[in-house]
Specification:
Radius of gyration: 28 Å
Helix content: 25-40%
Distance between the termini: 60 Å
Number of helices: 18
Strand order of the largest sheet: 3-2-4-1-5
Shape: globular
Bound molecules: S-adenosyl-L-homocysteine
Strand content: 15-25%
Number of strands: 20
Structural class: alpha/beta
């Protein structure tokens, strides 16, 4: 309804505790449509990738510093943006109302005549406990849970907290904003009669690949956290539940937990690999070595497309090739109907998957990755003698496949639809992370990524810092050996998931 005048509205949305995909579906939908997003420091910045390209994004950190905002300023921005006709999302870490100053924001909006909706989020306490095997409630020893702000413990003359009651609380205490105040929280509880032997735990960066857990008796927890240099954001959990059950700590027991994995594809590919690493509990470090560039404006491609119906087979060699081919089709005002009865081969399951959104099921999906073997399989699958075959591939792929098919009697037209240009990463920053021991694995998904990476980072660093190297398949491994690097593991299934499976196997055995 285009003519309808939109009522000013602000959505107070919980971003979830840290990990981006712990936001609610409702929150994610609203982020996709908002005109203006006003965001806290604790919300995962990855979520902003959901925003429209033209959305206005305003960061409102409320810490001390030149760029910080007062609550009054934030309230005013919210109301002003909504009154100027924009759909506003106010994105807050965790749940928007849990220690989130939601009352003030909602009241200001009310007073300004701006409608609002609250979208709950997973609050840090719940997520921190569940990502460390600590059960906040348990019928045996925790029939009640209290969520408390640790700010109250610090330097405030008048406190709303009754330490006498908290020290006797028969359940689990969870302190938000507790790290600075940890020594005084612990001593106030003990002074008021809680046992210094009471289990306590501190969870920092909950649900993120950098999550840390410190467990110690209440009397020693502050000292232990100091020793381990724990930094905010962190929560303090006190009570019998805080002892946890190491067997239930599923997140930190994952084989990739705590491991830094460098991903070395093009920027889009790296974002995809990073999501997969995070989903397995690892810490991705994105180091782009390549930039994918379409070559579909070349005559060679346009000619092949114009004479498309003469081909009996079209071969796609990668998901990138599929994506770029269909982008070009769309730009030229065409669609999947160009294929008519043409048979399609997709090399590898990911390439076949990339075809599916376009309504196309590949006729033949070989899983091998050397050109010679592919040619052998395709010839084994169908008689190619006298057939016209169009290969749509990367400019830098090897010629083995085309040569093999020609040897089998096919007339091959080999067209490059994209190329990978070298891309420079921030080598100094990566070397610093390597020096600090934050990198355990280097991962490679193509020979060109290997070349790109080791043109920037010296191959000796692999050995001198004890880095492990994982390769997606034999062609990539060969290139690693050529640049003088030992391959610790090669994927059995030649995909990113296969690569990560192989690394997990090594870590599980370690
Ligand atoms: N509205 C938020 C809390 C805001 S107060 C929520 O519902 O979670 C900020 C405090 O939340 C931090 O000081 C810290 O104690 C806690 N916190 C937020 N994110 C956290 C995380 N990923 N890990 C541990 N604590 C976190």
């Amino acid at each position: 309804m285009h003519n309808e005048i939109r009522k000013p509205k602000v959505y107070l949305v919980g971003a979830g505790p840290g990990r981006a995909d712990l936001i609610t579906l409702r929150g994610a939908e609203l982020l996709k449509t908002a005109d203006c997003i006003i965001v806290d420091k604790l919300a995962n910045p990855v979520l902003l990738q959901l925003a429209r390209k033209d959305a206005e994004i305003i960061h409102v950190p409320k810490r001390i510093g030149p760029d910080s905002f007062t609550q009054d300023q934030v309230n005013r921005i919210l109301a002003d943006k909504a009154l100027s006709g924009k759909t506003v999302v106010r994105l807050k870490g965790g749940d928007p109302c849990m220690f989130g100053r939601c009352t003030e924001e909602a009241q200001v909006l009310n007073a300004a005549g701006v409608e609002f909706e609250i979208v709950p989020g997973v609050t840090a306490a719940i997520a921190a406990a569940e990502y460390t095997g600590i059960m906040l409630t348990d019928r045996r020893y925790s029939s009640q849970v209290a969520f408390i702000t640790g700010r109250e413990a610090e330097g405030k003359e008048q406190t709303n907290l009754d330490w006498d009651v908290l020290a006797r609380f028969p359940g689990t205490l969870v302190f938000y904003m507790g790290i600075g105040a940890l020594p005084s929280i612990a001593s106030k509880l003990v002074e008021n009669g809680m046992s210094p032997e009471m289990p306590a735990a501190l969870v920092a960066d909950a649900t993120l690949p950098t999550q840390r857990l410190v467990q110690a008796p209440l009397g020693r927890i502050a000292e232990e956290c100091k020793k381990q240099q724990i930094e905010p954001p962190a929560l303090v959990i006190v009570g019998p539940a805080a002892a946890g059950d190491p067997g239930l700590n599923w997140f930190m027991q994952q084989p990739l937990y705590g491991k830094g994995l460098v991903v070395t594809r093009d920027p889009d590919g790296n974002a995809d690999s990073a999501r997969k690493v995070i989903a397995r509990g690892g810490r991705p470090i994105e180091y782009p070595t390549l930039a994918i560039q379409s070559l579909t404006d070349r005559n060679e491609f346009l000619r092949a497309l114009a004479e498309f119906p003469v081909y009996q087979w079209v071969i796609f060699t990668s998901a990138n090739g599929v994506r770029i081919f269909f982008e070009a089709l769309r730009k030229l005002g065409k669609d999947a109907r160009v294929f008519g009865g043409i048979k399609i081969a997709a090399i590898g399951p990911r390439t076949a998957e990339a075809l599916e959104p376009f309504g196309i099921r590949a006729d033949f999906v070989p899983e091998v990755f050397t050109g010679r073997e592919l040619a052998r399989q395709l010839i084994g699958y169908t008689d190619l003698r006298g057939k016209k075959v169009l290969m749509l591939r990367s400019e830098i792929a090897s010629d083995e496949l085309a040569e093999g098919l020609q040897a089998g009697g096919a007339a091959v037209t080999d067209v490059a639809v994209y190329t990978a240009l070298p891309h420079r990463g921030d080598d100094k920053a990566l070397i610093e992370q390597i020096r600090q021991g934050k990198v355990q694995w280097l991962t490679f998904a193509s020979p060109s990524a290997v070349r790109g990476f080791f043109e920037q980072i010296p191959a000796e660093s692999v050995h001198s810092y004890g880095l492990k190297v994982a390769s997606v398949g034999p062609v990539t491994s060969k290139e690693l050996v050529r640049v003088g690097v030992c391959v610790d593991v090669e994927a059995t299934e030649h995909t990113i998931d296969g690569l990560l499976d192989a690394i997990e196997d090594v870590e599980r055995r370690a």
